[in-house]
Amino acid sequence: TPSGPPMTLIDVTALAGSLRDAAKAEILPRFRRLEPGTVKVKSNPTDLVTEADTEAEWAIKREVERRWPGTLVVGEESVAADPALLGRLAAAEVAITVDPVDGTANFAAGLPLFAVMAAIVVRGETVGGIIYDPMGDDWMLAERGAGAWHRRPDGAEERLRVREPASLADMIAHVSIAFLPPERKPEILANLAKLRISANYRVAGHDYRTFASGHAHCVMFNKLMPWDHLPGALISEEAGGHVRKFDGSPYRPADLRGGLLLATDAESWSLLRREVFTL
Predict the structure, then answer these.
(1) CA dist., res. 252 & res. 275, Å (int)
(2) Rounded Cα distance, 72 and 74, in Å
(3) Using CA atoms, how far apart are residues 77 and 70, in angstroms rounded to an integer?
């Protein structure tokens, strides 16, 4: 047997097409047309689910089961219905994580900034990542060891590279502040004044896309759910970024605790961890 996990038999391009199909069938027809009562609150007033989320996830799951029988599908809405499903991810031979509408609050508010994401996990290692933007109709995707790419439906593609390092005062950061510990939030928010710009799109997929395409120097998250971060973390690594948990360890599919910090290089990561994200 091979010493490491095999490359998956799942075709990343085919899976990317399935995300697009689900978006066109179940998400875009509902954008700015959600019926009253189809938007529901989950854990708090900013944690929403719509029928676009649930219908898109079922559509992707059905397609995965048709194309690749036996693959474990770990979707955000499936786990909400059956939390035990999340515990099966790390031990699965082959699994796909799905975030059917990343940025549901934006989607529900009629803001055109949301994404459809999937990651391929083989024996506990992320080997493929896809972030599809329904509004731009394009993907950012990566396979481990093969680089990260911006791809359009006509097949045109461009390799992704993170931005060149910058001084702290010139850095552009995307920072998810919603899950910062309340007692530490004032200090972190004050530290962000050391940077040129700190932004919060409320959608991880576009934070990752911005970073991997060289338009930001840093991204920080403080809540780890695999469907939110496995695709973007791999894409960012393959684009040359330095991706680590706050304790400096690599981010793995089974990791559900601790924050995640991405920077253009290891030196910038250490600087940001010391001067800004003092968690």
Answers:
(1) 25
(2) 6
(3) 19
Query: Does the pTM of the predicted model rise above 0.90?
Result: yes
Instruction: Say which range, 33-47, 68-82, 259-273, has the weakest mean pLDDT.
Output: 33-47
Please choose, from the candidates 226, 217, 223, 181, the residue with its C-alpha nearest in 3D space to the C-alpha of residue 199: 217
User: Which stretch of DSSP H or E encloses residue 61?
Assistant: helix 51-67
Helix crossing, 226-238 with 204-212: angle to 10°? 0
Q: Write the CB contacts of 64 (distance below 8 Å, at least 6 apart in sequence).
A: 15, 18, 71, 73, 96
Rg of the Cα trace of the chain?
18
Q: What is the DSSP string of 66-130?
A: HHSTT-EEEEHHHHHH-GGGGGGTTT-SEEEEEEEEETHHHHHTT-S--EEEEEEEETTEEEEEE
Q: Which residue matches tokens 């911005």? A: 210
- The band of 43, judged by pLDDT with boundaries at 50, 70 and 90, is low
